[in-house]
Amino acid sequence: MKIIAFFNNKGGVGKTSLVYHLAWIYADLGLNVVAADLDPQANLSTIFLEEDRLEELWPDSRHPDTLLGVIQPILKGTGDIAPPHLEDVEIDGRSVGLLVGDLGLSAFEGRLSDAWFRCTAADEAAFRATSAFYRALLAAARSREAEFVLVDVGPNLGAINRAAIIAAHHVVIPLAPDLFSLQGLRNLGPTFRTWRKEWAERLKKNPNPELELPGPEMQPAGYVVMQHAVRLDRPVKSYARWMERIPTEYREEVMDAKAEEGMRVENDPDCLASLMHYPSLMSMAMEARKPIFLLRPADGAIGSHAAAVQDCYKDFAKLARRIAERCGVAVPSAGGAPGL
Predict the structure, then answer these.
(1) What pLDDT score was predicted for residue 144?
(2) 30-39, 85-94, 326-335: least confident range
(3) What residues contact 237, with CB distance under 8 A and at least 6 apart?
(4) What is the value of pTM for the model shown?
(5) What Rg value do the Cα atoms of the chain yield, rounded?
(6) 260 CB-near residues (< 8 Å, 6+ apart)
(7) What is the mean pLDDT of the chain?
(8) How confident is the model at residue 30 (pLDDT cuts 50, 70, 90)?
(9) Average pLDDT, stretch 211-232?
(10) Helix 159-166 and helix 179-203: axis angle, to 10°?
(11) In what order do the strands lie in the sheet with 94-99?
C-alpha cells in the first residue's frame, strides 16, 4: 500500500480534480483505492458527494464520520484517534472509499504546530498528534485492503500540510506553466527536505516503539503539467517560456540535483504527464457528478466530445500507470476505455 499526496503550495493548478480523476481511474483498473481529503477547504469531498449527503456529514456540532471526527479525541485531549469512516462512492459499478474532509480541520493547525516542537522532548502525546493523519490513513487503507491512498492537501506550507506530507510515501506535484508554479517549486523543495530531516531527527526520540509512525520517506514521485487552453500569440509565447523552465526548476529545487542541459518536459523522466485541459467536458462532468472519462452520450458526450472522453481516459490511464511505476506498485494489465 502506498500513500501518495498531491501538493503544490500554489492554488488553482487543478490538484483536486487530478486526485478525483486518478481515484476513479485506479478503481476502473481494478485496484482498491481510498481518496483522503486533508484540505480544510474540503473541496475533494464536495466533488465526490452530493450536497444533501455533505449536509448530513457536517451537522452543527459533532462530525463523527469525517476526518475531524477521527482526530476529535486528540483535539479534546480525551484520547487517541477514532476509527475512520469511509464513505463508499459508486459510479457504474466502480467504487472509491472517501475519507471525508471537514472545514473544522483547521482547528488542528495549532495543536500540530505545538506537537511538532514537543516531539523533540520525547512527548508521546505529541507523536500521537503528529502521526494522527498517517495512522488514520493506514486504518482506512486496511479496512478497504487498498493499494493506494490518494491524499488531497491544501495550498500552503502550514502544520496540517506538514503532517499530511510526512504521512505520505510519495508526493506528486501538479504544476501549471506559469511563474507562480515555478516559484512554488522554489518553496517546496527546500521545505520538503527540511521536513524530512527534522522528522528523521524526531523519530529517534519516539518513546513508544509500538506506536505506528511514518518513516522519513515523502519522496517526490514527479510532476504533472496541467495545461490550459491558450489562443492569443502572447499567452502562447508565455506558455512555452514557462514550459521550458519546468524541468530545470524541478530538478534543482525539488530533487536538489544538477539539471541536465537541454532537458525538456517531453523527455524529462520526472514529468509524469502533461494533461490536456477539457473545459467543456469538465463542466459536463461536474453536472453529471462523474469523472470526464466516464461520461456517456446520455450525459452529453456525443460527437467530438465522445472522442475527447476516450482521449481523456487514455491520458489518465497512462498517468495512473506511470505514478504506480514510480511508487513501486503493480497495476493490472486489464482495463480499457469504457465504451460509449
Answers:
(1) 95
(2) 326-335
(3) none
(4) 0.94
(5) 20
(6) 251
(7) 91
(8) very high
(9) 83
(10) 70
(11) 87-91, 94-99, 33-37, 148-152, 2-6, 170-175, 219-226, 271-275
Whole-angstrom distance, CA of residue 44 vs CA of residue 40:
10
Query: pLDDT digit string (tens) for 36-78?
Result: 999 999 999 999 999 999 999 998 767 899 999 999 999 999 9
Instruction: Output the nine-digit C-alpha cell for 217.
Output: 520517506
Phi-psi category of 12—alpha, beta or left, where left has phi over 0 and alpha has psi -120 to 50? Answer: left
pLDDT of residue 260: 83
Extract the C-alpha cell encoding 255. 530533487
The grid coordinates of residue 181 equal 508554479
SS3 43: helix
List CB contacts of 186: < 8 A, sequence separation 6 or more.
Answer: 249, 253
What is the 3-state composition of the chain as percent helix, strand, coil, each rounded to the nearest 5?
50, 15, 35
Q: What CA–CA distance (Å, rounded) separates 79 from 332? A: 41
C-alpha cell at 257: 540535483
Residue at grid coordinates 498517468: 319
DSSP string, 80-114: SPPPPP-EEEEETTEEEEEE---GGGGGHHHHHHH
Q: All 3 cell numbers of residue 213?
A: 509512525
Q: Is the pLDDT of residue 335 over 90?
A: no
The grid cell for 185 is 517549486
Element of type H or E holding 134: helix 132-144
User: Looking at the chain, how many residues does it have?
Assistant: 340
Query: To the nearest 10°, the Cα dihedral for 21, 238, 269, 10?
Result: -50
Among the listed residues 39, 7, 15, the one whose alpha carbon sits nearest the alpha carbon of residue 104: 39
- The whole-angstrom separation of Cα 223 and Cα 208 is 36
Whole-angstrom Cα distance, residue 299 to residue 281? 10
pLDDT of 226-283, one tens digit each? 876 444 444 556 778 888 999 999 999 999 998 888 888 989 999 999 998 787 888 8
Q: Would you tell me which CATH number, out of the four given (3.40.50.300, 3.90.226.10, 3.40.50.2000, 3.40.190.10), belongs to the domain 2-327?
A: 3.40.50.300
